[in-house]
TrEMBL record:
<comment type="similarity">
    <text>Belongs to the UFD1 family.</text>
</comment>
<dbReference type="GO" id="GO:0031593">
    <property type="term" value="F:polyubiquitin modification-dependent protein binding"/>
</dbReference>
<feature type="domain" description="Ubiquitin fusion degradation protein UFD1 N-terminal subdomain 1">
    <location>
        <begin position="90"/>
        <end position="183"/>
    </location>
</feature>
<keyword id="KW-0833">Ubl conjugation pathway</keyword>
<dbReference type="InterPro" id="IPR055417">
    <property type="entry name" value="UFD1_N1"/>
</dbReference>
<dbReference type="InterPro" id="IPR049439">
    <property type="entry name" value="TRAFD1-XIAF1_Znf"/>
</dbReference>
<protein>
    <recommendedName>
        <fullName>C2H2-type domain-containing protein</fullName>
    </recommendedName>
</protein>
<dbReference type="InterPro" id="IPR013083">
    <property type="entry name" value="Znf_RING/FYVE/PHD"/>
</dbReference>
<dbReference type="Pfam" id="PF21366">
    <property type="entry name" value="TRAFD1-XIAF1_ZnF"/>
</dbReference>
<dbReference type="Pfam" id="PF24842">
    <property type="entry name" value="UFD1_N2"/>
</dbReference>
<dbReference type="InterPro" id="IPR042299">
    <property type="entry name" value="Ufd1-like_Nn"/>
</dbReference>
<dbReference type="GO" id="GO:0006511">
    <property type="term" value="P:ubiquitin-dependent protein catabolic process"/>
</dbReference>
<dbReference type="GO" id="GO:0036503">
    <property type="term" value="P:ERAD pathway"/>
</dbReference>
<dbReference type="GO" id="GO:0034098">
    <property type="term" value="C:VCP-NPL4-UFD1 AAA ATPase complex"/>
</dbReference>
<feature type="region of interest" description="Disordered">
    <location>
        <begin position="1"/>
        <end position="20"/>
    </location>
</feature>
<dbReference type="Pfam" id="PF03152">
    <property type="entry name" value="UFD1_N1"/>
</dbReference>
<dbReference type="InterPro" id="IPR055418">
    <property type="entry name" value="UFD1_N2"/>
</dbReference>
Length: 564
């Protein structure tokens, strides 16, 4: 009996203990559920608060940006995000969709003057060579026309290269285009990335010609300036009165600094200064050019023009296995070549050119050393040589009048010794029988004396190979003409419509073109098609201030101000 009571009591205690434990666990679960519900409610409330704050901040930023756009656009708000595609053009003028024209015209943007836009690259899905983060690049531009497809903007190379450098390869280049008002520029400081830009004759006029194709300038941009076949890149270091300016209808002072020698190397040729009378050592590889420049000042030109002096350009070869060619040009032709030059020498080994007064003048000249064969070390010098004149009262040498012509060499020999001379001459000398040659050669030298089968010039055997390659190898002109060297030089200097000429109005090197000026009066003046258009620009007359076309300025000075 006691055993059963004890078992019943233990069972009751065990059940009570289990009920208490279950009640405790239930309370614990309810407490956890309440805490989790509180946490979830707090998280939801925090997310809602953050969302409201983000929305308020976004609204504030949007309002702030609209206010900035309103201020930057002087009351005009225009901002588009467009996909960028390149097009081949010059300057900094972009193409926009026609809907942009409608939006801008509705706000009266065209009544406020030229349109300027702030461009910011939005880099999405960018493939970059290194892993460093990239900041959005910005620049400014004008507008060329509103003919782009909807959702796209077309960028010229200048804008594209400044927004998307070579080291960045965006999968989908996107640009934010925003209308802004820009002040007119008063000052710009530029620095070329390559040396030699200041060697261009009237390089500021060339820069002015390039800037005519631009509507804006921004600090940090790289400006591309072309001069003939040469291309220079100038970085914009400083602008006034602001970091971005308009260059339309304004007189801007430009300061061109020295080249940035720390920039990446370039294959652009440079001019090495030469001092008259001071030799310069150098070396040139086969097929390449090394260029030097020298100048003729007033004092030197007085001696040369009077015939008392002459300019000698001499190159002494220091390498037996190598050979060079020598080309000289007068500026504005900066870099003479085999096809374009004023003077040349193709002698084997050392060579010299004596320049008289014909074709010379005060100014700068370029000497081009071309590596014809192998790597050649040389010494180049430009000197002023004084001509020797006979002194007053100097006796002349005695010339015997009783002479007889030698039947072999055709020289006139004194009659008393002609028999002895002819016997010696026939035994040791040979006269070249080539037409119009008649040169007298020693019998041992005659076998090395040959004539070119095309032009008839006389050479040594070792010289004929170079002569044939330089003068008689057919050359292709870009215009399609195939000529030999001498005719090619003449063709590319005076006939080829791809030849480069210097515009008398802008100073730039431009193609001559295959047609003369359209206007009959311009043709009578000898103006090319480019000069006819370039001369239509106006400039104020120095005497009366009246705006006169550049091509009519000389007539205006004569007709109105009697200046001739």
């Amino acid at each position: 009996m006691d055993f059963e009571l004890r078992r019943a009591r233990e069972k009751l205690e065990r059940e009570q203990k289990e009920r208490k434990e279950n009640a405790r666990l239930k309370l614990e679960r309810e407490r956890k559920f309440k805490q989790e519900a509180i946490r979830q409610r707090e998280a939801i409330e925090a997310a809602q608060r953050a969302s409201r704050l983000d929305a308020a901040e976004a609204e504030f930023k949007a309002n702030q940006k609209n206010e900035e756009n309103l201020i930057a656009g002087r009351g005009i708000v225009f901002c588009r995000v467009l996909e960028a595609i390149p097009y081949q053009g010059s300057g900094d003028k972009i193409k926009l969709p026609s809907s942009c024209f409608t939006e801008l015209s509705e706000q009266g943007a065209f009544e406020k003057g030229p349109l300027h836009f702030y461009l910011s690259a939005i880099h999405q899905n960018v493939n970059r060579v290194d892993e460093t983060p990239m900041t959005n690049r910005t620049t400014h531009a004008g507008v060329l026309e509103f003919t782009a497809d909807e959702g796209f903007t077309q960028l010229p190379p200048h804008i594209w290269s400044n927004l998307f450098p070579d080291e960045y390869h965006p999968m989908t280049p996107t640009v934010e285009v925003r209308y802004v008002w820009l002040p007119k520029g008063t000052f710009a400081r530029l620095q070329p990335n390559e040396p030699g830009f200041s060697d261009i004759p009237n390089h500021k006029a060339v820069l002015e010609t390039s800037l005519r194709q631009h509507a804006t300038l921004s600090e940090g941009d790289v400006l591309t300036v072309s001069h003939g076949v040469l291309t220079y890149h100038l970085r914009v270091l400083e602008l006034k009165p602001s970091s971005s300016v308009s260059v339309l209808d304004t007189d801007i002072e430009v300061d061109v600094m020295g080249a940035d020698l720390t920039a990446d190397g370039t294959s652009q040729p440079i001019l090495i200064p030469l001092t008259l009378g001071k030799p310069e050592d150098g070396a040139v590889e086969e097929g390449k050019y090394i260029y030097y420049k020298f100048s003729i000042d007033d004092a030197t030109w007085v001696g040369v023009s009077s015939g008392d002096a002459e300019i000698e350009v001499k190159i002494d070869s220091k390498t037996q296995d190598g050979d060079t060619d020598l080309y000289i040009s007068r500026h504005p032709l900066l870099f003479p070549t085999q096809h374009q030059h004023r003077w040349s020498s193709h002698d084997i080994g050392s060579k010299s050119l004596v320049l008289g007064s014909q074709g010379l003048g005060i100014g700068a000249y370029t000497v081009g050393v071309f590596g014809f064969k192998g790597t050649t070390k040389y010494q180049l010098s430009v000197t002023v040589q004084n001509k020797l004149k006979p002194m007053l009262g100097q006796q002349t040498s005695f010339v015997e009048t009783d002479t007889v012509e030698c039947r072999n060499c055709k020289h006139y020999i004194p009659s008393r010794s002609v028999a002895l001379h002819e016997a010696y001459c026939v035994r040791h000398n040979i006269v070249c029988q080539y037409a119009n040659c008649g040169i007298v050669l020693r019998r041992g030298e005659a076998e090395n004396h040959i004539h070119c089968g095309k032009c008839g010039q006389a050479f040594q055997k070792e010289e004929i190979e170079k002569h044939m390659k330089v003068f008689h190898e057919p050359l292709d002109c870009p215009c399609g003409v195939v000529l030999e060297k001498e005719k090619m030089v003449q063709h590319q200097s005076f006939e080829c419509h791809f030849r480069l000429i210097t515009c008398r109005f802008c100073g730039d090197m431009v193609q001559a073109g295959n047609s003369a000026a359209v206007d009959a009066r311009d043709r009578l003046r000898g103006l090319t098609e480019h000069e006819s258009l370039c001369g239509c620009r106006t400039a104020p007359c120095d005497s009366c201030g009246r705006a006169v076309m550049l091509k009519d300025m000389d007539i205006h000075q004569i007709a109105v101000h009697q200046k001739g």
